[in-house]
Every structure is written in C-alpha cells, then in structure tokens.
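Give me the fold.
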Amino acid sequence: RDREYNIHHIVLNPGGTNIPIVQAVQDDSYFHCYSVPDERSAMYFAIGIYLQTGELVAVSCTSAQATRNYIPGLTEAFYKHAPILAITTSKLERFQYQDYMQAPDQMSLPVDSVKRSFDLPPVTDDNTRMQCINSAREAMLELTHRNPGPIQLNIRIVDCLLYTSDA
C-alpha cells in the first residue's frame, strides 16, 4: 500500500518479528531499502533522508525493546515535523504483561514522540483484513495531515503455533 502514498524510502532494522515486512519490500525495485541494524541510528537516518529529499520515509523494526529504541528519534521527528512512518511489530496481546520480555506494550509511546498510533490486529477474516487496510491508509494519510509528523503503525505478528490438532 505504500505505493499509493509515495513512500519509496524504507529503513529496515533486522529482526525476527518483522521478517514478513522486510521480505515484502527488499526485492521490489519501487522501494529504496536501507539496512541499519541499530534502531536509534535508523530513526535518525530516516530523518536525514526526509530532510535531504523532502519525501516520506518508513522505518521497520522487530518486537521487544526495538520500539523503545525508536523513541529518541521519534521525539526528534515529532518536533521537526518529519513525516516518518514507524512500522513496529509486536507479539499478540496475550503475551503482554506475562513477564515475557519479548512482548512489551508497543503502544505505550510518549505523547510527544508520535502524532498518532495505530495498532493492527492479525488478519483472521475479511473484517480484520479490511480493518487493517483502512487503519494503514489512515496512518499514511495522517503523516502529512495538518502538521506533518511521525506516525506509529504497529502490526501484530502471529509467530507461533496458535492451535494444535489431535488428529
């Protein structure tokens, strides 16, 4: 969907949970992908791309503490009015607050780090698929609505077996 909103630049932080996102864009010639292993550096790198080109930029990180590492750069982007789409990924809600270190609350960003946050559920049927599409569209439009600024688009990733069969 980034094509509809002219997001060509994507800064990728390698990790396990965001593998589907990285795979979706890395071999597509439409996107200019930049691999930056450190999340703190990646966010500032993305701000630099925006300041140099004036174009929208997306960043993508894995779950766990990666989103927390974006906060200093997102705060900078917030006050610079840099439209950065922070695509964060997280585990399912059932893992949160269960002393599972890989599943902190990804949606608890400070109010002066992003204009808005959107949390996309796993796609389980046509209803959740449409909900995800509509929320993603709204997130990308919000990047430049009124005062430009960073937006968080959190995607819940199913990375474990949810159901077992006794068959």
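The mean pLDDT is 85.
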